[in-house]
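Fold these two proteins, one after the other.
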Amino acid sequence: MAKGEKFHKGDHVSWASHSGRAYGTVKEEITERVKVRGHPVNASLEHPQYRIRNDDSGRDVAHRPEALRREQE
């Protein structure tokens, strides 16, 4: 991700996973400490993260913006 780039609800993104590249759709920007599937997400206004619905599993995950890459639809 380019520095300062933001993602928006509906953006199709990918990230590195243990089994190769994973793909999903941004559901929301997270700007406070929450849990996603039982895992703590230490997000803030200064350091947001994104809730993403994985295309393959249908499960929600959270990632920092620098871990994400925008994909073509």
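Now the second one:
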Amino acid sequence: MGDIVYVVMILAMAAVVVVLAIGLGGFAGGGAFNAKHGNKMMRLRLLFQFIAVVLIVLYVYLRGQGGQ
């Protein structure tokens, strides 16, 4: 179970980085994309960060339990 959580945790962290990069790129470029999608990118990043933190805590908990 711990290995599955580890892989999903890594994917969630990668999703945070991707959404952050898209949001920063849109903010740096400004224009219509930022006006239309800037707030949505921020909310999506916060959601992905929350999911990643929950998975990290779950992984640490499972490691402390011996992976059972």
